[in-house]
Design brief:
single chain, mainly beta, globular, two-stranded antiparallel sheet
Length: 55
């Protein structure tokens, strides 16, 4: 798996589930392949059909 942090890419030999368990509650899994730090989200835009995107 690739972890993108502070402009760098780190390659880990781990599962998303294991990584998610090690992270603080500031991190939320928003998709089966994506975990985000909610403190870094500046805005959320609503899309048609109730979807949302964080620009």
């Amino acid at each position: 798996m690739c972890v993108h942090a502070e402009g760098n890419v780190h390659i880990l030999r781990s599962t998303m589930k294991d990584l998610e368990a090690k992270l603080s509650s500031d991190f939320v899994r928003i998709h089966r392949s994506t975990i985000v730090n909610v403190r870094k989200i500046r805005a959320v835009d609503t899309l048609p059909k109730g979807s949302a995107i964080a620009p």
